[in-house]
């Protein structure tokens, strides 16, 4: 309150002009207040101006303008009031006051007319309600607008799409430069023309619209009525398609693909045609180029194919040739291997350093070492133990040119082998050793046979010598004996002469005995062979022998049932047995046992090979065995030599020589087996005799046992025996075919009609006589069969039992053969199981 | 008493047989070989022939064959001391070819005389 009083206090102060100037505080307070008021006054119209500018909707802008101006002038007045304190510019101040008064008055005046309108302005609540209502309305309208806008947008979109589609189609048609698209009316007159049509055909819109479309056709086509026909087809079928030459404006031709489509309204009324033409000239040209290229290519392909075919054919021929060559090579290798293995003598191939490369089957058989074993363990296995010398000889042989060497090795089983090695080194072109081929010749058997032969020849030579000597001796002795006898007869009374000539005669008679023995050994003694049954003969001689050998020695005799009869001189056989038993007695000074046994024996080819004087066949065997001191091998090898004796002066050395000669002369064979300290066995083999039956048979060609031209297949693996039987059968009047074995016989049976199969039983290979006979009879039931064998029938009892074939035992005589064949062919054979 | 032809190449043997048979009262004709023997047989027509087998010129066997061809009935005795050729039993062969008997050298003269007597007897 005090401040307000002081503000309006006028005491002690002069009017403005007096005291204001110098009271600094007042002056400055007044001046600053005026300035602040002025600043405030100036800011108000600025704020108003900003308000009005911002709010254009404000009504009564003139009132605001006047009021603003009034405030602005008020401010100016205050500025001047402050200024006039120091500067007495009252006139300006007054002017501003006048302006202020004017404006303020105008403002006051303006307020009144405005008042009713101002009052009419709604108040805040009304406004709020109105606003609310308005807000609702606005919201509803907003929603409605939104719906409408949405609908509008859809419509807009559809409209835009349609517009765009139409526009696009139009653009498309216009822009399609590669297709001439034109519309024709019902008569074929062009009504529409696109850029492509212009480009392809050369006409502008103005030149072609209204023209008939036939002008695009060639004259020939027009003359032929093609344009109209195209329209007609399109009208009927809805569509016409064609390719052909068309003509451009400049008369040049192009190859066109034309599609004409009939256009119809909803009611089916023909409205016109749409025609789309495409210029395919380039494509056609390209096609042509392509076709030409293809043709050229095909021609080249053909040519190439042809050359390839030729090449292929050549290759195939080459492959064939090579395959054939390989086949040939393979066959050659197989053949070589087979040949290698089929060699009857062992073959050993070693490389340059002595490793075994090949070893033949014959080697495996002979030595007992397989090829694998030799390859793994080396050829040194063949020379075990003291084979160093042999090995070094082998190596020596392998180093040089082909050469032979003989040495003795042993088989794996320990059997001594006498061998001759043919060693052939094979060299490389540069001279180094490539391989060594060693052929092994087994001389064991040969040496054995040679030894036998030597012995045989030796005996033969001795026999010849002694035989010749004996002949002369006999003559001399005959004269001596005869003359001595005659002398004794002449001088019967002269006792001294008789005594002397008696001595001489005894000596001559001993000499005659000796020469007789020698002749016996030399097989030149006169024999009187007869058919003998051994059991009877031996039974007779044993009684005499028993008395001869004394009580210390037992003689045991055994006979087998199946021993055949023999033909021999009985006196000589008895003498031989006596000789053997005497030797046995002498070998058993302490007593012992002598066994005489008989049996049937079949001597086979193998036996005959080793014993060169033996023929294979059936034999009656007499064995004389003692339990004496036995003989050394050396003694054994010489016992048959004349004058060889181990009995000192007691023996003549001619006993066994006589036995030997007798056996030979009788067609037999003698062998000896002896073990020192164990005993000795002599074996006397006499050939079986069939003589008595032979004599009874009539074998004349026209006789009852002769053949009547029937065909006989003779199967026999022994070629000598086969030759004999074939000759015999032909002589009997049969047609004869021959086969070496079962398979060969079956082949013959296939191709020839056979009446009788005459087959050996034991043959090499899988088909023996039984199997062959069974197969033949099963296939050709009419074929008759006769089996033959070196074995007696008893040997085949089991196999013969179920079979109806007769068996002819070897050796047989021609008569036996003729008889059995005739019987079988005539159907009255006595069958073995009947 | 018979006329006997002896054929032997050995003169000692001929002489010995000659003596033995002569002593036995036989008439003896001798020939030194087969050729001569056959001639003598034709000329002298002996009752019996005794021939050696191994002889030069003509073998005894051939001689016997020829004589047997000349006469089926004359007794022939073949004699031999054995042969020089391997494998041939001359006496056996001779027997088969017609010799009535065979006799091996050496023999006693009495054996031969007995044999001759046996062959000449009507019973045989």
Q: Could you describe the 3D structure shown?
A:
Chain A has 834 residues and is of the alpha+beta class. Chain A contains 27 helices and 22 strands. The radius of gyration of chain A is 78 Å and the shape is elongated. By secondary structure, chain B is an alpha/beta fold. Helix content of chain B is 44%, strand content 19%. Chain B is built from five helices and five strands, in the order βαβαβαβαβα. In chain B, strands 2-1-3-4-5 form a five-stranded parallel beta sheet, with helices on both faces. In chain B, α2 runs parallel beside α3 and α3 runs parallel beside α4. Chain B is globular, with a radius of gyration of 13 Å. Chain A binds chain B through residues 460, 463-464, 467-468, 470-483, 485-486, 489, 508, 512, 515-516, 519, 522-527, 665, and chain B through 10, 12-13, 16-17, 19-20, 23, 54, 80-84, 86-87, 89, 91-92, 102, 104-110.
What is the strand and helix layout of this fold?
The complex is a heterodimer of chains A (834) and B (124).
Chain A: H1 2-7, H2 16-19, H3 24-54, H4 61-83, H5 90-120, H6 124-175, E1 179-184, E2 190-193, H7 195-201, H8 205-208, H9 219-223, H10 226-237, E3 239-247, E4 253-264, E5 270-279, H11 281-342, E6 347-351, E7 356-359, H12 361-367, H13 371-377, H14 388-399, E8 403-410, E9 416-427, E10 433-442, H15 444-490, H16 495-521, E11 530-532, H17 534-549, E12 553-559, E13 566-568, H18 570-587, E14 592-603, H19 605-610, E15 617-626, H20 633-638, H21 655-665, E16 669-675, E17 679-687, H22 691-696, E18 711-715, H23 719-731, E19 735-739, H24 742-751, E20 756-760, H25 769-779, E21 784-789, H26 797-800, E22 807-809, H27 814-825
Parallel strand pairs in A: 12-14, 18-19, 18-20, 20-21, 21-22
Antiparallel strand pairs in A: 1-2, 1-5, 3-4, 4-5, 6-7, 6-10, 8-9, 9-10, 11-13, 14-15, 15-17, 16-17
Helix pairs in contact in A: 3-4, 4-5, 15-16, 16-21, 17-18, 18-21, 24-25
Chain B: E1 3-7, H1 11-23, E2 27-31, H2 34-44, E3 48-52, H3 60-70, E4 76-80, H4 90-97, E5 101-104, H5 109-120
Parallel strand pairs in B: 1-2, 1-3, 3-4, 4-5
Helix pairs in contact in B: 1-5, 2-3, 3-4
